[in-house]
Specification:
With 313 residues, the chain is an alpha+beta fold. The chain is built from seven helices and 16 strands. The strands form four sheets. Strands 3-4-5-6-7-8-9 form a seven-stranded mixed β-sheet. The chain has a five-stranded mixed β-sheet with strand order 11-10-12-16-14, sandwiched between helices. A two-stranded antiparallel ribbon has the order 1-2.
Length: 313
């Protein structure tokens, strides 16, 4: 544990997205890189706090070169501290992780020179630009009243809780199944007037009790994705950050937020959509690409999908 003076407040610099970096962002990023470094299983790593995918074991720790090693099997992408802007207010935060297989076509000639090396590095960097359907595992940790770990390996979603007495995660939520219908929506409703018309229409019907379920929806929004999705997984509902006039491509990052969370929700029997298509099928073009996302209870998300049919942005 670090003194509060070293964990609260902001760093003097911004991350690659131009966002203020909380001190805990930097600390969390460093801790995760250190932990993943010693697994001996990773070839490439991409983080929200890094400009590009990086080398886990550089000769010079101050460099951020890509690690290209044919002996490594997996690619890890993660958001080291989701909801970090809420840290100073004591609101729950979390870590999101996605794991992909390392593309065997990624090979590197260490005797290459100049542009030849750049071309080979670009091929290996493409290992991180995979759609969610290629995920072999996804997980999140929620730091709240307890420390929860929710994990999928592609055959169901399972929840674990940290037992601090023994220092182990204990299975407490086996084979999580999200309710197929709900009456809870989890959105930043201050942006409702900026959303796509189909999303506005669905939200208004839900609030008026005129949606397909006939239920009058309640609003439950924390503003920390991991916390909101955790509640949605366990009790049902729809969490979303839709496209809007100011963010037509959405706000959440595809690679290390939207895709891993979508995988967890789908493995629990839910759905996840951008409105225009399945989040898991979107192929990222850049590491920090953003997408709209609405995920949660199957029937409620399907209502959003149906509303977007025939609509053209």
């Amino acid at each position: 544990q670090l003194p509060s003076s070293e964990t609260l407040g902001y760093e003097s610099n911004n991350n690659v997205q131009g966002e203020d970096q909380n001190k805990l962002d930097v600390i969390s990023n460093r801790i995760l890189k250190r932990a993943l470094r010693f697994t001996g299983k990773l070839g490439v790593l991409a983080s929200e706090e890094e400009d590009t995918p990086i080398d886990l074991m550089p000769d010079n720790p101050k460099t951020q070169d890509i690690l290209i090693d044919e002996g490594e099997k997996y690619v890890a992408v993660f958001d080291p501290l989701d909801g970090s802007s809420n840290v100073d207010a004591g609101i729950p935060t979390g870590t999101i992780i996605g794991i992909y297989e390392h593309d065997e076509s990624c090979s590197f000639d260490y005797d290459c020179y100049g542009d030849d090396c750049t071309e080979q590095e670009a091929l290996c960097l493409a290992n991180t630009l995979q759609p969610g359907i290629n995920l072999v595992s996804a997980a999140y940790c929620l730091y709240s009243s307890s420390t929860f770990l929710v994990l999928t390996l592609g055959s169901g979603t399972y929840g674990f809780t940290l037992d601090e007495q023994i220092g182990e995660f204990v299975l407490t939520h086996p084979n999580i199944k999200i309710p197929e219908s709900s009456s809870v929506m989890s959105f930043n409703e201050a942006n409702t007037h900026l959303w796509d018309p189909p999303m506005q229409e669905v939200a208004e019907k839900w609030k008026d009790g005129k949606g397909k379920s006939g239920e009058t929806f309640k609003s439950r929004y924390i503003g920390s994705m991991v916390a909101d999705v955790h509640r949605t997984l366990l009790t049902g509902g729809v969490f979303g950050y839709p496209a809007d006039i100011n963010n037509p491509n959405g706000k959440l990052r595809l690679l290390y937020e939207a895709a891993p969370m979508s995988y967890l929700v789908e493995q629990a029997g839910g759905l996840s959509t951008t409105g225009m298509g399945r989040v898991m099928e979107v192929v990222p073009e850049v590491v920090h690409q953003r997408v709209p996302i609405m995920l949660g209870s199957k029937n409620d998300v399907q209502e959003i999908i149906d509303a977007y049919k025939g609509w053209d942005r």
